[in-house]
Automatic annotation (TrEMBL):
Segments traversing the membrane: none
The protein's name in its UniProt record: MerR family transcriptional regulator
Alphabetic keyword roster: Activator, Coiled coil, DNA-binding, Transcription, Transcription regulation
Source species of the chain: Streptomyces edwardsiae
InterPro entries the UniProt entry points to: DNA-bd_dom_put_sf, MerR-type_HTH_dom, MerR_fam, TipA-like_antibiotic-bd, TipAS_dom
Length: 253
């Protein structure tokens, strides 16, 4: 089988111009040409393209990718092992970042500029600055934390009221779902998990599905988050974690 440059671009989610560039620099030279001189790619070319995109996603410059792929002592399994190690390290970094921002976000500590009376009006008996010092000391260097601070610093009391109203509404609907016997992998639960992800993106920082998975695991592993969610309804933390995982699978598989 051989494939046109247009079909390969469609398979891989890249542009035709990108494939032309890879050919021009010798990174991915198609194995054949049509009678009219057009590029034709075979399965081996697609395998190499997959490796290129793996390394590119991990931040490697294209010249380094070429060196890695053309190493005569490396076989395909060696590349997969290396990529697995790099991805595992990246996931761990994202997990720590997720924990960082979530600790701050749930405590409502980021950039809140309200009087004590306004804080009570918005958050009731919750102390939005309970974990502020800890969060800043441990996680203040992360990009997501900085982004959430930047956004939240501009919010007014009315903005915070809207944030809290969305949270309260979501909590009410999620507890009702569990009470009705809704399963984590059900469409309703996955939709609420997606709403949870988008709420964070709307008010604080963008949350890729990989990071959202980390959030879900943290809700069960961290006793403070588990207690927070289970206070709404026993078992909600694990239910939400499973719904988040199912929703991420739905959108990324």
């Amino acid at each position: 089988m051989s494939y046109t440059v247009g079909r390969v671009a469609g398979f891989a989610g890249v542009t035709v111009r990108t494939l032309h560039h890879y050919d021009d620099i010798g990174l991915l030279t198609p194995s054949g040409r049509s009678h009219a001189g057009h590029r034709r790619y075979n399965d081996a070319d697609l395998d190499r393209l997959q490796q290129i995109l793996f390394y590119r996603e991990l931040g490697f410059p294209l010249d380094e990718v070429a060196v890695l792929l053309d190493d005569p002592d490396a076989d395909p399994r060696a590349h997969l092992r290396r990529q697995h190690e790099l991805l595992t390290a990246r996931i761990e970094k994202l997990r720590k970042m997720a924990a960082a921002v979530e600790n701050a976000m749930e405590a409502r500590t980021m950039g809140i500029n309200l009087t004590p009376e306004e804080k009570f009006e918005v958050f009731g008996d919750k102390d939005p600055e309970q974990y502020a010092e800890e969060a800043e000391e441990r996680w203040g260097g992360t990009e997501a934390y900085a982004e959430s601070q930047r956004r939240a610093a501009a919010y007014t009391k009315e903005d915070w009221k809207r944030v809290q109203a969305e949270v309260d509404d979501w909590q009410e609907r999620y507890t009702a779902l569990i009470a009705a016997g809704g399963q984590p992998a059900g469409e309703a639960a996955m939709d609420l998990a997606e709403e949870h992800r988008r709420h964070i993106g709307k008010w604080y920082f963008e949350v890729p599905y990989e990071m959202h998975r980390c959030f879900g695991e943290m809700y069960v592993a961290d006793e403070r988050f588990k207690a927070y969610y289970d206070s709404m309804r026993p078992g909600l933390a694990e239910h939400l974690r499973d719904a988040i995982l199912a929703n991420a699978e739905r959108h990324t598989s």
